[in-house]
Amino acid sequence: MLRLAASSLCVYCQRLQISLPHSNRFHISAGRCAALGTGDSKAENKCTVDCLCNLSVDIRKIRKLKGWVLFEDTTYVNEIAGVLKEMGADRMTIASILEQCPEALLCTPAEVNTQKELWRSVCPNEKELVKIIEKFPYSFFTVSHHANQKANIEYFQGLNMNKRTLSKLMASSPQNFSNPAEKNKEMISTLQEMYLKLGGLEANMKIWLHKLLSQNPFILMKPPGTVKDNMMFLQKRGFTDAELLALLSKLRGFIIEPSPISMEKSLAYAKEMLQCSDDQELKEIVLKCPALLYYSVPVLAERSKGLLNEGITIDQIKETPTVLELTTQIVQYRIKKLSASRYNIKQGSLEPLNGTKKEFEVSYGKIHLKKERPLFNPVAPLKVDE
């Protein structure tokens, strides 16, 4: 009798039908997956596996990533797929989400619907929400801290944070929203206090804070004392309030990453490596490249060595210290590409090496176009002696 019931359930789960010969429409039958009760405690839940296969999910990826999920007695494959479909996700998107976050199968329909309503309050539309879930599935399917998530959303909305910024913040750093709202309030208050103390204008504080959080949301996970200790260390090194405000604003809130001890070591190494005449010269270089403060000595040593091996001089590095933000591999690739366009990096500026991949491609394109440009204007009239 038990075996017959189990068999019927498994057949029911297999009713999930997908019809995609000419369109992206597909049909999902509801029904929770349950273990077959074969007596083998180590066997995978066949119903779960069958339902996932019907959704074109790559079972091998799940076995490799979180194989234990397939052994759970109860899963909600069809229900989760159904909720995602209602939100506008197509077949391939659903499969991708479940492959990335197998634990989603363990969330009850009630939990997922509650999450959906919560995220709707911060997402411009469901299309954007589906994109977020595909990119950050764990952020959406973290359902155990709903009360904290709701309280944090209300707090950030009170800071006049727009939906797009808030949804990105929730997606990229779900831990911040799982923590009690009071923890985030304490850090935000510290940052606001520091901003005003260093001479920032209250009228600009909201924009400054939103930009800082969108660049580096993990700043909220650090103790507030970290910011204060690091700022005090830099004040003792001779940085003015205006310079500290600039440093606090640059490079994704770098000020939370290092400690006074690690900064002391990095600055000492940078001063010797760059052959700075005094602390003032070193400070000017740091203001150009704040990354010098939080890169460790081994990282700085490796990157400076890589630049010198390419024939680049210390004076060139001092003039454009931001090249130290690039890995040795990236530097080698970019120098090779620039050399192919007959740009001599040893004699020219290092500025074309700088920037993101997109920024480099723009610089390279200009150099390449300039080298390929003919020496005369082919459409200009020629002067001919009469």
From TrEMBL:
It comes from the Eukaryota. The lineage of its organism: Eukaryota, Metazoa, Chordata, Craniata, Vertebrata. InterPro entries: MTERF, MTERF_sf. GO terms for cellular component: mitochondrial matrix. GO terms for biological process: termination of mitochondrial transcription. This is Transcription termination factor 2, mitochondrial. It comes from Acipenser ruthenus (Sterlet sturgeon). Keywords: Transit peptide. GO terms for molecular function: nucleic acid binding. Belongs to the mTERF family.
